[in-house]
Amino acid sequence: MAETEFVKRAVRESRLILTRDTLLGERWTVPSCLSLESDSTFDQLRQVIYRLNLRISDDKIFTICLKCNEPLEEAVREKVEGRVPPYVYRTKDRIFKCPRCGHLYWRGTHHDLVMGIISKVLELKGDREDHIS
User: Fold this and answer.
1) Which residues have a Cβ under 8 Å from the Cβ of 26 and sit 6 or more positions away?
2) What pLDDT shows up at residue 104?
3) Of 7, 24, 11, 18, nearest to 51 (Cα)?
4) How far is CA 53 from the centre of its chain?
């Protein structure tokens, strides 16, 4: 996607632009643009959390479809049998579905991994309690 279309779409959809391009904000009048200062993914994550004053809560993380950005809904268990691996069906109490694309999600090892990374990123600054609830 060309930069022009990218910026127009972000403005039209009221999205925040995260960029390493320090000149993007100078080339365009963009209401919401955050220029990431570091090459380190951990430092970038920390910057986003602090600059946007985000609070990470376990009940809010992983609640949006990764494919179409739609809020997830809890799926009816009986309707997902055969659409998820048998082990997942047997061991997970809650399975979530995207109402738009139908993609299914559940809390697996990735949830604990991501929460661990976020915790570690915030502990480096000593503000874990201020941002994770």
Assistant:
1) none
2) 97
3) 18
4) 15
Report pLDDT for 124: 59
Instruction: Determine contact, residues 64/70, Cβ cutoff 8 Å.
Output: yes
Query: Which pLDDT tens digit goes with each residue over 35-45?
Result: 999 999 889 99
Is there a contact between 125 and 46 (Cβ–Cβ < 8 Å)?
Answer: yes
Stretches where the chain sits below pLDDT 70 are 124-133
| Burial environment of residue 30 by CB neighbours within 10 A (0 to 12, 13 to 18, 19 or more) | middle
Judge whether 48 and 42 are in contact, CB under 8 Å.
no
Instruction: Compute CA 131 distance to the chain's CA centroid, rounded to the nearest angstrom.
Output: 15
Asked whether the beta carbons of 129 and 57 are under 8 A apart, the reply is: no
CA-nearest of 94, 96, 103 to 67 is 103
CA neighbor of 132 nearest in space, from 55, 25, 21: 55
State the Cα–Cα distance between residues 105 and 62, nearest whole angstrom: 9
Q: Encoding tokens for residue 74?
A: 């809890």
Secondary structure string (H, E, C) spanning 13-32:
CCCCEEECCCCHHHHCCCCC
